[in-house]
Amino acid sequence: MSRRLGFGLILFLLAAVGACSSGKTQDEGRPLANAGGTAGTSADQPSIQFTAPAGWVKETPSSSMRKGQYRLPHAEGDAEDAELTVFNFGPGQGGSVDSNIDRWVGQFANSDGSPIDKEGKVNEKIVNGKTVTIVDVSGTFITSMGPMMASGPPKPNYRMLAAIIDSSQGPWFFKLTGPEKTIEKWESSFDEFTETLRVQ
Questions:
Q1: Three-state SS at 88
Q2: Across the strands, what pairs with 45?
Q3: Are 33 and 39 in contact (CB under 8 A)?
């Protein structure tokens, strides 16, 4: 190997090492947290930041209405995974907090088919100076249609944990739905997740 070629190879290797040590990752700067838990923002979605807990599997949203989608592996004894979906429709869009709560609770029924009363299913907490509304409802998940609803046969012994937080770009909606045992498995993880929400 000539001295000139050897010197050129050394410079190339030094440049490669410098690029790898810059501290940037492929997911840095994206609007939604990656599966490993790195949050970011972008020019088209500047109003939300959060950290996805370990174990949440980031997926490509199955609908253009969804801003994000995660799969939470099922608990032993459950046949299906849980799914967390993220929605934002822009300023003044998406409906009021109460209308969304009514719609979500209306997706569930008691074992005898009667409607579920939303009383006791809704709580609020302050996260990073903002009010986060939490919805917790269980029962038979009913077939529904719409961008924020599931479609399919009724599913007994289901549960939903949901959160709403307002921002400069309108409210953000987070819905975790799945079999009761699986939701119980991830309940503390969901609570930790809501504590990371930051909005402008």
A1: strand
A2: 42
A3: yes
- 3-class secondary-structure state, position 190: helix
Please answer whether residues 143 and 113 qualify as being in contact, where contact means their C-beta atoms are separated by less than 8 angstroms: no
Q: What is the pLDDT of residues 32-52, one digit of tens each?
A: 443 333 333 344 555 899 999
Give Cα 73 to chain centroid, integer Å.
Answer: 14
First to last CA, the chain: 58
For residues 126, 198, 181, 147, the Cα torsion angle rounded to the nearest 10 degrees is 110
- For residue 152, name the pLDDT band (cuts at 50, 70, 90): confident
Distance CA 108, CA 115 (A): 7
pTM as predicted: 0.76
Q: What is the DSSP letter of 91?
A: T
Q: In order of start, what are the domains of the chain with their CATH numbers? A: 25-199 (3.40.1000.10)
- The C-alpha atoms of residue 173 and residue 48 are separated, in whole angstroms, by 11
At 38, list the tokens: 């790195």
| Distance, CA of 51 to CA of 38 (rounded, Å) | 6
